[in-house]
Structures
1.
Amino acid sequence: MWDELSEENEVEETYALSSMKTLEAAVDQVTSFMGMHPCERSHKIPENRSSHTLLLAGVFRSHTNVLVRARLALSDGVTLRIAVRSEDEELRQLVASSVG
């Protein structure tokens, strides 16, 4: 489904999640905060990883699909690079900016 929505339907932001000390905690928090469902078992993190990609999907009140690719990297805290795809420009901006 990700590829069905082209890059022109994408917005990307980067955030520092300084209070997160593990990738597992960051995945749980991002998933919970977004209120979206993990895809392709991406909420499971292989052992001994310093980076991970979380894929989320949801349908908002307007019956509009929203997809999220969250790339997480563990350093001093967790860096989150989030890409949001949706046909609704305002919705993808809202979702991408809601983290910060």
2.
Amino acid sequence: MVTFYFSSIALSVYGSQQEGCGKRKVNFVRVTEEHSHLQFLVNQLPQILSLLADPDSYHGGSPTSASDQAIPHTSVQSLSLIIAGTLDGDSVTGIDEIAQIQSQLSTSGYSKLTKSFNISKLSSWIQKHLVADPFGVDACIARRRHTPGSPRKLPGPHVLPLSVGKTATNSTYAPEGHGLVLFSQVSGQTIVRDSRDIAHSGVVIKRSNHCTFYLLAPLRFVRVERCRGITLVLGSVRDFVKVNHCQDMQVHSVTRRLHVSDCSHSTLHTCTPTRPLLLYGVTDVTLAPYSTCYPRLEEDMHACGVAPHPNLWNKPLCSSLSEGQSTSSCYKLMDPENFFAFAIPFTMPGRTTSCPCPVPLQYSAAIARHESRLVEVRDSVRSVIGSESKEKKREFAEASREAFKEWLRETGHLREIEDLADIHRATCRPS
């Protein structure tokens, strides 16, 4: 099934405008980079446009052939879902607006009299000028490679003084609302970004393993592809979070839509107003409620238009199940006894002090039980060693510390603790 929302297209037209002086360049663009999507559009555009055509109306009034069919102006407006445009490279304009520019009327097939487009002319006009997305991932990578002295890291206060794999962004040249940040081949590191770095950008994470991402900002979309063993902590995501070809993932997100395909052994903590979509190849995925926060979370949710109600995290749609197949082969809900609140170890200005997304009663009760057990263990330890000498207490504390460090090493958490310590020292260092 093809979803045109994810296709990668752009259209370039050269022509003069009566309203302006000289010539201006026109580009139609989309947000992703896959060349196969572009090729599909080139080959199938006539069929796509035929779906928008009004079968009872003809451009010019006489039904001589299918090529004379007309597409209403309102239908062409809907093409902006898969084709966007720019007149000057700095702002994005709808395809219908560009098609009505005086210099384009003769080739775009628009009739001011009928307020419709000739399907044949419109198809030829678009096909003639389709190019790859100049703001997509491929263009972002290519531009980074050909920029002398281009940085390996994004600017920001929480960047470790280490290589973070391959990092690229189009923020220096993309129109507002079309920013993109790419992380690729990140391994064994902790990456932190906030609103000062990536607000309202799209984020693509590819081919990374055993690392942690804290992306604490309002985002347009997040795509995670071919990753293993990563923890992804997101703020609010306006459009979608898409996880594809991944294993051993832990994702915390507030998002309008969640799409998962070809993933296994992963846990998804989500607050979403739509049913999570579990597509082909999804096995051993655990769903859990979103249970974390940071000081700007409510502001970021408001900026993205994502509300905490309704929250359908536990009502996924499994599209790959055959008739009679149980949903347990695709996903399960987390056992409340295995549920813990996730703490984000950073401070920043903001008014959010607790998770704004309601946690179901059985899960909040489990957190209370965990906290109660922790208090009981702490009190038991104090009662046992309370009467011991200072030397015994020091030996006990040292043994406990070493046992904890050994557990951190065995579980792989020691690297993350050390990264967080480095970030803390870097942010506290006087400038």
3.
Amino acid sequence: MNVKSEEFLGLTSTVTDLVLRRLSQVLGFDGMGEIKGFSSEVPIGPEEMETNQVHPGRKKRREPFDPEKTDELEMKAESIQTLLDAQILSLEILSNLLFGEEEETSELQEESEEEMVFEEMDTATENTNDEKIVSTILPEVCECIKSEDLIGKVLAKCVSLPHNVGEILKNNGEYGKRIERKSHQLRSTALFCLQNILLTFDLPFIGGSHTLSHIYNLIKPTTLSISPQDGVLSPRERELLDAATSALRAVVQKGLDDNSTSFLDGFSTADLNSLCLLSESVGDDRIETNVIRVVGGVGMLVSRGKIQCGDGRILLGRIGEFLLGFLGHGPERGYLWRVAEVLDTIFDVFAEDDFNDILLHLQMIPKLTAFQPLFRKHIRNQRRELGGKRVIVETSRTNLSRFIDYKTKHGCS
């Protein structure tokens, strides 16, 4: 059930108001402040005892720690963990209310199943789905979300623990480690909830271009700071990176939908290369798909002339190179779905003839032509495994033929 479902719309405004205000009340507690306060009270960890050094930002104790305080600290730790559990549950409820699973699946299918007619492209037509989305939500719900500053409270939960606080917690017994793990889970859950907020409401409701820039600057460091150790992500790194790239994808999509591009001011080739490297190193289908869509969204904004990122043609060339690189991967699990995402992104970014010279430089059309029979072969071999994604993959196959034919006629071969 979500805020646009018949079940929710059938509830009285009193009930919906009560649910949202209770979620707001739980999310309004300053869990970060509680954690920081707790970290300043815990005993010096073993490493500090041996080296006689204290983590930055924390005063060294002049007297030995009183063992009698252990029970008191454990009670505080349990209280904080209960609060974090309640906030995680509140974020999950809010996320599901805003954007149900069935609706998400439906929108993704509609996005990918669209067959393209390259001869009759009209890029002047803008996406107006956001206005329709927000208008289907009860006014009482929108007013409650606004008055309770629920979006601001979700954003506050997307902030990471200070590094020194996290280290103190990890070095102070099982209760400290539990709090550190829960705070990490809270952040990931908040990022997923933020994604659904961005997909549900229009830009003015969220707070305009300024808020979108704030969200982007909040998420970007998280996305680019996680690097796999020995090529392997830990489960918590995978969870956080999945959440961060999902939210970043929603930010870029919101920028596309609303022609709001200020959040990408200063986006550089180095940023693009970092995203490409991230995608190539994580080995996760969901994260790779998110990065593909983020990179493609940036490419679409550049190709439309909406943003100026240094030499835009160099940037588009790097994007094309990155996307073509996915086509050479073997037919492992999730391969065809990922290829469909890559192909759709290529069609979106390079649809206009203004950039045919880039296609020529990359030899994109000959490479796509050579890839086409292999793609068809993999579809035949994995047809039964595709399930509900079969139509999406088949649509990409059809659009690939049309894209090759169109670009060949315009001298890109």
